[in-house]
Write a structure and sequence with these properties.
The structure is a homodimer of 401-residue chains. The first copy, chain A, has 14 helices and 15 strands. By secondary structure, chain A is an alpha/beta fold. Chain A has 2 domains: 150 residues, Alpha-Beta Complex (Aspartate Aminotransferase, domain 1); 239 residues, 3-Layer(aba) Sandwich (Aspartate Aminotransferase, domain 2), CATH 3.40.640.10. Chains A, B: GO terms for molecular function: pyridoxal phosphate binding; transaminase activity. Chains A, B: It comes from Pseudaquabacterium pictum.
Chain lengths: 401, 401
């Protein structure tokens, strides 16, 4: 590497721990609760195939040509209207279609983060956001939290001197990894704190539509449009393979994000945007998303029951009200990363929680996905996890003097 | 904007001049020679529709799920083999599928460019590369050149003290904007100079397959694999709407580029990769690309003839041997940017050359695309351009004392 000189920021690019774990766990025969994938059983294959055919019959030249960096107009309008149904007031001109929500995070980093600038994140937070922001070399502040999410006081305690915290990155709904939702009261308190100190927010909402019994409260962006940059995605309600996400920016921010988008990949594939719009334009998601909710709710119930039955005493978790994940805190003396090889040897996999912390990871935490296994396999996988944990705990006791 | 603080690099993000021009010129009735688009008449719509249907019938769950950041294995193998046919020796493990070649440029900037680091570019160079690199805040060195491309002496003259020039960005084949190809002798001389001073090269080759009479010489990457990062694209030989490009990196560089790719958008849409592979896997491009060459060659000939007939004395150009563009240098006293409104008023459009220079733009230059107009419209458009220029030149003479 003497010929090529790497940029300093490259030191902040690293292999994803999850990716490395997934490689191990994708061996046949492993009951993996490690993935962050939606269930392929939920993909509306027939509707997508028909939509592809219609787009390539009705507007093939437009779908296959270079297109606008902002995104496909009718899709931007759909997004604005969809978010209107959630209480946001969005002009289609504020919508930027991104190549997956991950690209939205990258553009946020590119436009808002200087090397050494503070960025506030939840504890724990979404690993992919840390990966997206890292090359822009922020200094993270981990917001203290409880079961309802970050504490308003942790926002009031942020240093607001120059260079100032650029934004707080929040995942209000069924957070990856913890599954928790911010209750209405916490949303209001966080907004009041952020407005009081002039701290902008980046609100990431890939899971909000996947509620089980009741929809989550309105987005933060609905209450403070000029202070919240909102990110959404089609990956969890339709399919991730199209790589289609979007961001909604306050008008003052939009032009720079658009220019960053253009520099990054010119535009998101036009055919993908048109096919997705063709699938959803007549209310398809109104019928489709409830089927995902029902499926995931049943799988969640199976995992809740299995955890109740098989986890050793001292294990902590909250039953999620939506999304895809359970977040466990193991009994004292259990290190989720250290135990993973034993789990894999017994035929199961999970993601150790350590990857999701900007600082001071809690080694006792782990994430379990319930959406890609059948209820029977969930029961079996969780039972095996319980056995691995008990074996470890019993071994530790025996070793004690 | 007091609430949101922009990163310093945002100052280097700006609206694309070309984009702004295209907005004006996309009015109906304008004969536009301004676009950088391939001709939609070349899109193999039927083959793509059939391939979509096969992919969504045979492997829909895989095509619509999250996928590997490196890209779809069989497509990476195809790329390695295709480049082998051009004299490169590429392992599929060196191929990274990108969301258009533009993303390859962004990843190069992210991994290799520090703020203030020198990057050498051709004079003029591809505007989109400047846009991709700009947010990483390089200091450009414009390489002096002649009709055969950059001069080897301009590479020997680069400052190689710390921090050192990170790379020279070169477009050997039918360059956008000038259309010129680097002859074999110039390639060898540039490689010798780069190797002598230890300067890595980024070789961008979106147009290499679009030759008219004879293929261009072998890529630079074929002669110096460890010192050249190569970028390719399906946008000009198939369709840009899928946003499919690729880079081939020396093995030492690959992991950081892959990590940057993962942080940028996780992966390029799997369905797009599978559909394109399905279209091309059995030699489709061997039949298809010659039809594009023949079409573009005829359009190029029409423009060459029209320029010969209509350009005022003192206008300079080279007839391109491939690609999509003519590059004109107008007679003294003609400023292409200043004349554009008059051209648009007369119903034609072009791109002023100024946008393609990192420094000291030559205001007399402009770019004409010949691929999206019929030969008749080309003749008519160039005749109008000639009239606009003559009117200006005559008016200038009359104004002279």
């Amino acid at each position: 590497m003497t010929l090529w000189t790497l940029a300093r920021r490259s030191a902040r690019l690293n292999p994803s721990i999850i990716r490395e774990i997934l490689k191990v766990t994708e061996q046949p025969g492993i009951l993996s609760m490690a993935g962050g994938l939606p269930s392929a059983d939920t993909f509306p294959i027939q509707a997508i195939r028909e939509a592809c055919d219609r787009v390539l019959t009705q507007a093939p030249r437009e779908a296959l040509q270079y297109a606008a960096s902002e995104g496909f107009g009718p899709l931007r309008e759909w997004v604005a209207q969809h978010l209107g149904g959630m209480g946001m007031r969005v002009d289609p001109g504020q919508v930027l279609i991104t190549t997956g929500s991950q690209q939205g995070l990258d553009l946020v980093g590119k436009v808002l983060v200087d090397a050494g600038a503070p960025v506030a994140v939840e504890t724990p937070t979404y690993l992919g956001a840390l990966q997206a922001f890292n090359p822009y070399e922020p200094i993270y502040t981990s917001l203290a939290g409880d079961a309802d999410g970050p504490l308003p006081d942790s926002i009031r305690a942020l240093p607001h001197d120059a260079p100032g915290t650029r934004f707080a990155y929040l995942l209000p709904n069924f957070q990856n990894p913890t599954g928790r939702v911010l209750p209405e009261a916490r949303r209001l308190a966080l907004l009041a704190a952020a407005q009081a100190v002039g701290l902008p927010l980046v609100e990431d909402n890939p899971y909000g539509d996947l509620w089980f019994d009741a929809p989550p409260p309105a987005p933060l962006a609905a209450r403070w449009p000029e202070g919240v940059l909102y990110l959404g995605s089609f990956s969890k309600v339709l399919t991730p393979g199209f790589r289609l996400g979007y961001l909604v920016a306050p008008p003052a921010l939009y032009p720079k994000l658009l220019q960053a988008k253009q520099a990054a990949d010119l535009h998101t594939p036009g055919i993908n945007q048109r096919v997705v719009h063709e699938v959803i334009k007549n209310g398809f998601l109104d019928q489709h998303v409830p089927t995902i909710r029902a499926r995931y709710a049943a799988q969640c119930a199976a995992m809740a029951e299995a955890l109740q039955r098989h986890m050793p005493e001292g294990t902590e978790w909250q039953r999620p009200q939506g999304g895809m994940f359970f977040w466990l805190r193991l009994p004292a003396g259990c290190d989720a990363m250290a135990l993973l090889p034993q789990a894999v040897a017994q035929g199961i996999a999970y993601v150790p929680g350590a990857a999701f912390y900007a600082h001071a990871a809690d080694p006792r935490t782990l994430r379990l996905s319930f959406v890609t296994l059948s209820p029977d396999d969930i029961a079996s996988g969780v039972a095996t996890l319980g056995k691995v944990l008990r074996t470890h705990i019993d071994g530790t006791r025996e070793e004690a003097p």
